[in-house]
Structures are given as structure tokens and as C-alpha cells.
Amino acid sequence: MDARLNYFTIPAAGKALKYFMSAGKELKDMPLPAATQELVALRVSQINGCAVCIDMHTKEATAAGETPVRLNLVAAWREATVFTEAERAALALAEEGTRVADAAHGVSDETWAQAATHYDQEQLTALVILVSFMNSVNRLNIITQQPAGNYQAGQFH
Q1: What pTM was computed for the model?
Q2: Which residues form the Carboxymuconolactone decarboxylase-like domain (predicted)?
Q3: Is residue 91 within 8 Å of residue 42, measured between CB atoms?
Q4: For the chain, N or C: smaller number of CB within 10 Å?
């Protein structure tokens, strides 16, 4: 499968995406645990069906020491016992923040309150920006049918 657009060879894309992707790099330095960031990025990408992001975040999480069991259970995190309460709150917020078109309420007060019991204001900010960022990146990749499978961990660092 070939991508509809190659963002790396189009000057207009390179110019705009340079700033857009710098936001993603800044997220890595925010005070949200790295494991939580990868789990959230993976879950958002699973929901949206973004194969290239699923490939990337699975490999990045593995390189950072995440276990195959936890990665394999992200899609069914509610029934899994391998996630902390804080991670479960982040995954719930990520799901509701991604499925805003599927539910009239967006992120419920209950989900927000649960996340707020585990994360401070800076971490909540990082979580909200991460969910929003991943939804945007997923759409960039899905619209242009970016192929998955060839990502190498650390490729964009």
C-alpha cells in the first residue's frame, strides 16, 4: 500500500508539520508518566484505526520497557487487571475524548473527576493535549493512508 501523500517530500507539509510535530515532542517532556503517554497514544490510535500510529506507539512502548501483556490488553483495558487505577482513569478520559462524536456528553464529569484524583493540573493538561494531538495525527495518517509496519523505535527522536 502506498500513501496518498508523502509528507516528507511536500514543502508545504514540511513547513506546517514541523510546528505541529514539535508539539508532540514537547508532550514527551510534560509531567505525565511515559508509560501512560504511550498507553493513551496507543488506545486513541486503536479507536481511530490508525495503523501507523498503532505500529509506532507499540514499538516505542516496547522499547521503553512496556510488557507485551499490557500492550495486548490496552484494547480491553476495562477487563484487564494489569493497569493501575491512574492508567485506567487516563484510558477512560482518552476514550471519551476520542469518541466525542459517538456520545453527546463528550468527557463526562465522572470520568474527569476520576482522572483528577490521580493527576494534578499539569498532568491533566498534558493528558488533554495528548488525546487531542493523537486524534489529529491519526486523522493526518488515515486520510492519506500512511502504511504501517516499518517504523523503528526512536525513528523521530
Answers
A1: 0.92
A2: 17-96
A3: no
A4: C
Angle, alpha carbons 31-32-38 (nearest 5°): 140
Q: Which residue has the cell 493540573?
A: 121
The answer to whether the beta carbons of residues 96 and 108 sit under 8 Å apart is: yes
How does pLDDT run across 67-112, given as a tens digit for each residue? 999 999 999 999 999 999 999 999 999 999 999 887 668 899 999 9
Determine the residue type at 43: R
CA distances from 139 to 5, 47, 121, 132 (A): 13, 12, 27, 11
| CB-CB contact of 97 with 108 (8 Å) | no
Q: Which residues of 112-144 are buried (b: 16+ CB within 10 A; e: fewer)?
A: bebbeebbeeebbebbbbbbebbbebbebbbee
**Residues comprising the chain, all counted:** 157
- Which overall architecture, per CATH, does domain 32-143 show? Up-down Bundle (1.20)
What does R_g of the chain's alpha carbons equal in angstroms? 15
> Which residues have a Cβ under 8 Å from the Cβ of 110 and sit 6 or more positions away?
none
